[in-house]
From TrEMBL:
GO molecular-function term, one example from the UniProt record: GTPase activity
Gene3D superfamilies membership: 1.10.287.130, 1.20.5.170, P-loop containing nucleotide triphosphate hydrolases
Gene Ontology, cellular component aspect: cytoplasm
Region named Disordered: 1-33
Key word Hydrolase present: yes
Enzyme Commission number, as recorded: 3.6.5.-
Name of the featured protein: Methylmalonyl Co-A mutase-associated GTPase MeaB
Key words, A-Z: Hydrolase
InterPro entries from the UniProt entry: GTPase_ArgK, P-loop_NTPase
Domain of life: Bacteria
Pfam families assigned: MeaB
Keyword match Hydrolase: yes
SUPFAM superfamilies: P-loop containing nucleoside triphosphate hydrolases
Length: 366
């Protein structure tokens, strides 16, 4: 009797294993087999295939390509550069728009509403949402799962959140390369949402064609939060949340900003910066923003500055990378990190002035 029960249980176990499919009674063998497949997948990236998929419009493969570009692994560097080399002939045809603003102004809300309008018109819209970095993990705090949900699901849109990783200007150090890959994927409008960090937003200005600042009503309050240096690099101020009882105040604020901008040096030659009231809640003003960007492009192209600005940006990018590489090479040299630590200790102990410590650090090169 007991033997019969044990036989039935054995059959039940065999049946369960059979139904689940893929589970093998030799557990250790299964683990070794999976691990081999995983390693093979991780180490074999076919760049030709990846690029063709990106160019064909695969958003998943575009995300894979960007991850490869952002990778800090030395082994991924050559692969990423090969991918960018293939993408380069297909870049440069988009309108690159930077969007920044004071905290609480609703940058993400504006970008989602604006992006949806453009995507519905047939444009392919890529949003590079630069999130503040977590002090613990170094990764994005927000991410695309918690905002811009409607735009994320639009077939003509692609959103990529990236951490600033401590980079000055509120942008990821690989944002420029990511932008190029998005252009190669066919996106004709690139929106770069940045962390509002003050005058260092010049880093964004140096990689986009058009720079917009999102503000809120009450020009006096806004001016305290927006330094003159930011306004001098702005092509358009978007006075956001112009809805309900706030419409009149928003229009007045826009007029006040226009007056101020009139007396500042233009951010772009041939263009007079302006301000517009916009409501993402009532979906008003976004058409006017797009018309303003269209007018901007026509006027700046007419005087030949559109191409000049992009050439200058590429040159500045090249120089920035030279400085970054020099710093990295310096710290990779034998004994440099240890010597820096020793000199830092002496500086903090008031045993050496900073200038003398610098002389000692570089004296072997003299």
């Amino acid at each position: 009797m007991n033997h019969k029960k044990n036989e039935d249980k054995s059959q039940e176990k065999d049946s369960a294993l059979h139904v689940m499919g893929g589970i093998h009674s030799s557990h250790d063998g299964m683990k070794r087999k999976k691990r081999r497949r995983f390693v093979k997948k991780e180490t074999s990236v076919n760049i030709d295939s990846l690029f063709h998929s990106i160019a064909a419009g695969s958003r998943n493969d575009l995300a894979r390509g960007i991850t490869l570009i952002e990778s800090m692994k030395r082994s991924d560097h050559d692969l990423a550069q090969n991918l960018l080399q293939k993408a380069l002939p297909y870049t440069g045809e988009s309108v690159r728009i930077g969007v920044s603003g004071v905290p609480g102004a609703g940058k993400s809300t504006f970008i989602e509403t604006f992006g949806l309008m453009l995507a519905d018109k047939g444009h392919k819209v890529a949003v590079l949402a630069i999130d503040p970095s977590s002090a613990v993990s170094g990764g994005s705090i927000l991410g695309d799962k918690t905002r811009m949900e409607k735009l994320t699901n639009h077939p003509n849109a692609f959103i990529r959140p990236s951490p600033t990783s401590g980079t000055l200007g509120g942008v990821h150090r690989k944002t420029r390369e990511t932008m190029l890959l998005c252009e190669a994927a066919g996106f004709d409008i690139i929106l770069i949402e940045t962390v509002g960090v003050g005058q260092s937003e010049i880093a964004v200005r140096n990689m986009v064609d058009f720079f917009a600042m999102v503000a809120i009503t009450g020009a006096g309050d806004d001016l305290q939060g927006m330094k003159k240096g930011i306004m001098e690099i702005t092509d358009l101020i978007i006075v956001h949340k112009a809805d309900g009882d706030n419409v009149r105040r928003a229009k007045r604020t826009a007029r006040e900003f226009k007056q101020i901008l009139h007396y500042l040096q233009p951010a772009t030659p041939g263009w007079l910066s302006t301000a517009l009231p916009v409501s993402s809640y009532e979906k008003t003003g976004h058409e006017e923003v797009w018309e303003t960007i269209h007018d901007f492009r026509e006027k700046v192209m007419e005087i030949g500055y559109w191409d000049d600005r992009r050439k200058n940006q590429v040159k500045n990018w090249f120089h920035d990378m030279i400085y970054e590489e020099l710093v990295e090479q310096f710290f990779r040299r034998d004994g440099v990190k240890e010597k820096v630590a020793q000199l830092e200790a002496k500086i903090l102990a008031d045993e050496l002035p900073v200038t003398k410590a610098m002389e000692l650090l570089f004296q072997e090169d003299q």
